[in-house]
Write a structure and sequence with these properties.
Shape: globular
InterPro entries: DH_E1, THDP-binding, Transketo_C/PFOR_II, Transketolase-like_Pyr-bd, Transketolase_C
Protein name: 3-methyl-2-oxobutanoate dehydrogenase (2-methylpropanoyl-transferring)
CATH superfamily of the largest domain: Thiamin diphosphate (ThDP)-binding fold, Pyr/PP domains
Number of strands: 22
Helix content: 40-55%
EC number: 1.2.4.4
Cofactor: thiamine diphosphate
CATH topology of the largest domain: Rossmann fold
Pfam families: E1_dh, Transket_pyr, Transketolase_C
Amino acid sequence: MIENNELAMNLESRLSFEEFRKEVLNDYRLACDSREISLLARKEVLTGKAKFGIFGDGKEVAQIAMSKYFQPGDFRSGYYRDQTVAFATGIATPEQFFSQLYADPDLKNEPFSGGRQMNSHFATPNLDKDGNWLNLADMKNSAADMAPTAGQMPRALGLAYASKVFREVEALHTYTGLSHNGNEICFATIGDASTSEGHFWETMNAAGVLQVPLAVFVWDDGYGISVPRKYQTTKNSISAALEGFRKTEDSNGFDIYNVKGWDYAGMCEVFEAAIRKIRETHIPALFHVEEITQPQGHSTSGSHERYKSKERLSWEREFDCNVKMRSWIIENAISDEANLQAIEAEAKVKAQEARKSAWEKYIAPIKAHVQSFIAQATPVAAIAGADADMVNVAIRDLQHNREPLRRDILKATATILLKHASLKADPAIQALQQFYDSYLQEQKDTYNADLYASGVNSALNVPVVPAEYDAEGITINGYEVLNRYFDQLFTNNPKVFAFGEDVGKIGDVNQGFAGLQQKHGKDRIADTGIRELTIMGQGIGLALRGLRPIAEIQYLDYLLYGLQPLSDDVASLQYRTKGIMHCPLIVRTRGHRLEGIWHSGSPMGMIINSLRGMHVCVPRNMVQAAGMYNTLLQANEPALMIESLNGYRLKEKLPANLESFTVPLGIPEVLQAGTDVTIVTYGSMTRIIEEAMVTLSEIGISCELIDVQTLLPFDIHHSIVESLKKTNRILFVDEDVPGGGTGYMFQQVIEVQGGYRWLDVAPRTLSAQAHRPAYGSDGDYFSKPNTEDVIRIVTEMMQE
């Protein structure tokens, strides 16, 4: 006789097996779905419906196993082969995948980038248009993907670092919509060949030092496009090469796990325990997922049969993860052949349905636009004197084009209008012109908007609050202004964090944070290693998760180390996600005038041309800097703040409303009115020019000095040209190389603002020399613009 408890145990066991069986088959179904999507998507590229494709085939099972432990609140910082991760976590659907493949610009169809990024570049929103942070703690989140190899690694460190501060800073525990006590993990994925990038090594080292919940999955398929792993990695193994980083009982570091990418059961077992440990302890881990295959090669640009041996290709067919999982299912009697065949057949159907639906949604509005064009172009053919044959050919070509593009419609319309320019007064031509203008503007909005934020998220919409001064207000050093400002800021805003080289204990090299770590804690004002790249990554991750980081680059010269993530990730973020994701990072640094090659940097041309999408603030003094910080902290946009190196010990009057006054971005300030020459500059050069103006005034030359205050944005109301209308002479001055910042300002005023109309003499630029500034006071004098240079050029302009 079977006891009741034994009966119950048998029943529970059967139920447990049924649940297990169901879960396994669902996972296999997803692996098949993703594989069929890869195969079908490749065909769409090769037949011309899509421009390029790169897919995650061969990594399906590993990505499914990983995704089983991805929880709400977690963040993904991955790369462009993570389609199965996106499907498994619900971040993307197969139909959305195809919509992105077709570059559908409608966010309803392609919600990650509105057609602006190629396939498998996923993103989830973090802010709404009212400036409210979404409930990230209950979402499955994905930082916006980008193609530069290993570019996802620095921000992965920051996303994990955010969990550390959410857990350790008590004042943040009330922000339950952003974090559940720091329990979130950042899942970073990377191809094995990309671990050769410095980004990877700097990130892994920093993660081991900081001890943050970062789970790094290396998909190892043995190649970097055509280059075998042995030419990429020391010891032919990234996990072996990193062995010295392994955490021990008496050291920091990270855990290292090795798994096979075709071993479904083995990966599930390892990942479950390892991810639980990361979540609980915040000890990072590297998962070296070996023996991955890539059945269709690197991308649609070529065949892997060109560089893989017959033996390798045979091995890849045998160890294909889907094939191995299928065999494992049958060997363990989880399902039978017939059922698996049904799953596989269903996957083909689902892929076709997703493709068809996505294509129809993509092509339908374009075909409607074609019909609108035909309706407007047809009457033109009937005009007396019109080239009816030409118009009808244009109409017929678009009618017969099965896959028309928006550009085809615009080109056809523009060609007809140009051909019939002499008939522009005819109502039919006017109607066609109106159609063209409206359609062109609509598509510009579709493809060119969202480089910067709008509405309440925009720094340009922050109310202007002038600085106020008490009659008994004190005058102190510039660095003391900042020190008092940061003290008030950190006291009143728990979301603000600052970190960088020497920022903490000594209070930064110019004492802006002096004594503040001791007052506000090491978690909020922190020292870092000398690693500018991942300092930027730390800031990016915190900003994506709703905090307000101030990430410091000690000197502007060293910004180059951190420029790649700022340019490729931060500056392009709002544009490439079509405004769904924001990164309100403030990068604080110092530059301009000082004596020496490596601490006198003013590479403004490089900065403004690589950071479109960020604001670039160049305050002339520290009170102005504080006002700009206030402006930025009320918005949700990224910015670079360049403080003047030689201004920290200059005396400034302390505003009474230090923490609340704002300096508007993109609004130049006239520092001194004049009638003869307009001089446009910023930063430390304002003081050089003010000195020159004393002498110029003595010889009867009246100069109007304008401080642009920010280079991005630049003079949004075109006020500089108003000065030029009065003086008819203009000189642009800065410390960048010739054609750098001065060339940019020149183009903005003379071309964009139409300033050329008001010139009586040739406009001039005065910049530094083309070389780096030489060391010493004489080196500075002969390398950068000086007082005598300003006087000489202005007097020449007056004599012209």
